[in-house]
Design goal:
By secondary structure, the protein is mainly beta. The chain has one domain: Thrombin, subunit H. Helices cover about 5% and strands about 45% of the residues. It has 1 helix and 7 strands, in the order E-E-E-E-E-H-E-E. The protein has a 4-stranded antiparallel sheet, with no helix packed on it. The chain has a 3-stranded antiparallel sheet with strand order 5-6-7. A hairpin with a 2-residue loop joins strand 6 (about 75-85) and strand 7 (about 85-90). The longest helix has 4 residues, at about 65-70. Keywords: Repeat, WD repeat.
């Protein structure tokens, strides 16, 4: 299976994670973008996010309820944590499907 659009050499460590509930794999590439593909078909299922200022070295799907972390925030739902250089970034992946 091939993931069209992903840019990565086999000798460089970039992040990826699998969401078995949604049958999605998220893969970071050398272009500092994160792409989302169907595990079943290999097709892109969401628009890429990024580019970021540095490589995305780790990814983790999760459900966030920011009210538990900080009552001043109001962010909930499915998303992905990303490690970019020395920062951890949250990205909601709600309605960003490829048309």
């Amino acid at each position: 299976m091939k993931f069209e659009g992903n840019v990565n050499s086999t000798n460089i460590q970039y992040g990826f994670d699998v969401n078995l509930k949604e049958d999605i794999v998220a893969i970071a590439g050398q272009d500092n973008k994160v792409r989302f593909f169907s595990i079943n078909t290999g097709r892109a299922i969401r628009n890429p996010i990024g580019p970021f200022k540095d490589k995305v070295s780790a990814l983790r799907f999760c459900t966030l309820d920011s009210m538990e972390l900080n009552p001043e925030l109001d962010e909930r739902g499915e998303g992905i944590w990303m490690a970019v250089e020395k920062e951890f970034l949250w990205w909601s992946i709600g309605n960003n499907d490829v048309e």
